Each structure stands twice: as C-alpha cells, then as structure tokens.
Amino acid sequence: MKLPQFYIDELIKTALNEDINYIDSTTDLLIPDDDVSEAYYLAKDSGVLAGTEIAARVFELLDKNIEVKFLFKDGDRVQKGDIVAEFKGSTSALLKGERTALNLIQHMSGIATYTRKCADLVEGTRASIADTRKTLPGLRPLQKYSVVAGGGRNHRYNLTDAAMLKDNHIDAYGGITAAVNALREKAGHMLQIEVEARTLEDVKEALDCKVNVIMLDNMSNEDMKKAVELTAGQAKLEASGNVTLENIREIAETGVDIISLGALTHSVKAFDISMKWRKK
Q1: How does pLDDT run across 225-254, given as a tens digit for each residue?
Q2: Which of 217, 223, 253, 272 is catalytic?
Q3: Is the pTM of this model over 0.90?
Q4: Which comes out higher in pLDDT, residue 201 or 280?
Q5: Catalytic residue among 134, 153, 156, 184
Q6: Phi, psi (5° rounding) for residue 47?
Q7: Which of 131, 196, 238, 257 is an active site residue?
Q8: Is 73 a catalytic residue?
Q9: Cα separation of 250 and 253, whole Å?
Q10: How far apart are CA 165 and CA 174, in angstroms?
C-alpha cells in the first residue's frame, strides 16, 4: 500500500507551517547554519512500526542533504530499546523537524501496534480486523494506511465507496426493505450495499433483500452465532460495537467475517519513540 507523495508532502508542509510559522526562535538564534549532528530514534516500548517514510520525508523537505536510515520498515515489530533509525545532517533541520516527525510516526505506529494486537487475538478464525470512518480530519489516509501496516483491513474509505444503511438511514426512510429497494433503483451496478442489523429479524430482512454485507450492531455473541447460521454465506457479516481486547476473540469465534473497531483510529495510544542526539 503506497500513499500518494503529493498528499504526504502537503500534510507535512501544513504541519511544519503550523509548528515553525516563520522562524524557530530557539534553533535559528542558537545553532549555526553549517552545524552538523547525528541522532537516532529509540523505541521506548515494543510494538509495530508505521510511518517510517513519512517521518523521513519531514527531514528531507527541511533539508534534502539530511541522511536518514531506518533500520526497520513499516509493519515490522520492534522491541523496547531498539534503535529504529539513524540521522545525520544539518543540526538546525533535525531540531526543527523533530516534533513533527515524531508526532506522525508515533501516532501511526500506535495504530499499527493496536491493530496487530487485535489481529493476533483473532488468528485462526475467519474474522479480519477492519477500521471505520472514525478518523481524525485530514489524517484518514495515514490512519488507514497504519491499520494495514498492523495487519488489518480497510473498511470503506469514505461515503462514496459503498452505500451503508445505518439505523438512522433505515428509521428515516421507513425500513430496511424500502431503503434497499430505493437504493437499487438509483445506484450503479458497482455499488455495494451494507445494512446495519440490530436484531435477528433485521438480519433476515436484509438477507431477503440480498445485500452484500450485514453489520451486526452491538449484538450478543449468542445472537451473532445465530446470525452466522441464518446467513450461511449469503452475505458478509460484520461485528461492530463495544469490541475490546478482552472480548474480541469470543466475537471472532462466533464465525463473523469482519470485526470493525473505531478505537483503532479515534483513541489509540501513541507508540513511544524518542529522538536522541549522539554527543559530539
């Protein structure tokens, strides 16, 4: 999975403009322009990396002559105490880019690490781990990329990708069948339809409508097992709502195809990485 360079560069430039404005009052007044330093990234926890190329690009945009060498790639597991990357070049540029680069790689690696934990817990079942649209504005591509780096899969990227009839759509339109029929009259042949089901009766109705995916919203494990039996492969089943590290294995063992978690992106803990200077 490769993110477009123009998106990465624009995001980084926005972040640098926000952080530096027009001068760095500490670095620009303290450090000579020709000063050169060496530094490295130190993992202060164990987890999964994501955002290595994005972090490197921060420094490249500040000074094209900075040497950046990552010792791990996105998706790799790192252990506490590992040296993750090494840097050599303009002291000024390294200092100015330090926080922006760390903000990005720490956030992305936090997502990858949590996703990997979830994926490991459901290993051996048919369930895959998926994200949601509960992302931070402007960061969705980075966040969804990080989910993939951690061993998960992406749900729809935005509202255009698929028609997803959630409870409010269904209630506003007057029911599952009416809403699905209305969509099919207007939608192109490429559009997939997912329906949120709150009860087993909703599952049956969605199956009668021959939808592509049925989301089992906050259902008990017992009801999800019954939904798997009812569906018998006629549609993909997605479990959603109140999924935690403690219950994700039990949910996967119901036989669902997908487990989606907003927590992968909206409230994940940053992965602890520090930038350390090599003393001259």
Answers
A1: 999 999 999 999 999 999 999 999 999 999
A2: 217
A3: yes
A4: 201
A5: 134
A6: 180, -155
A7: 196
A8: no
A9: 5
A10: 12
Residues written for the chain: 280
Q: Tell me, letter by letter, the H, E, C secondary structure of the chain.
A: CCCCHHHHHHHHHHHHHHHHCCCCCCHHHHCCCCCEEEEEEEECCCEECCCHHHHHHHHHHHCCCCEEEECCCCCCEECCCCEEEEEEEEHHHHHHHHHHHHHHHHHHHHHHHHHHHHHHHCCCCCCEEECCCCCCCCCHHHHHHHHHHCCCECCCCCCCCCEEECHHHHHHHCCHHHHHHHHHHHCCCCCCEEEEECCHHHHHHHHHCCCCEEEEECCCHHHHHHHHHHHCCCCEEEEECCCCCCCHHHHHCCCCCEEECCHHHHCCCCCCEEEEECCC
109, 123 contact by CB (below 8 A): no
Cα 232 from Cα 236, distance rounded (Å): 9
The catalytic residue among 13, 166, 269, 276 is: 166
Catalytic residue (choose from 24, 28, 63, 99): 99
166 in active site = yes
Contact 197, 203 (CB under 8 A): yes
Q: How far apart are CA 275 and CA 101, in angstroms?
A: 10
Angle at 150 between CA 101 and CA 105, to 5 degrees: 5
Q: Would residue 96 show up in a list of annotated catalytic residues for this protein?
A: no
Q: Give the rounded percent of residues in the chain with a pLDDT score beyond 90.
A: 96
Q: 10 Å Cβ neighbour count for 40? A: 17
Burial class (CB in 10 A: 0-12, 13-18, 19+), 23: exposed
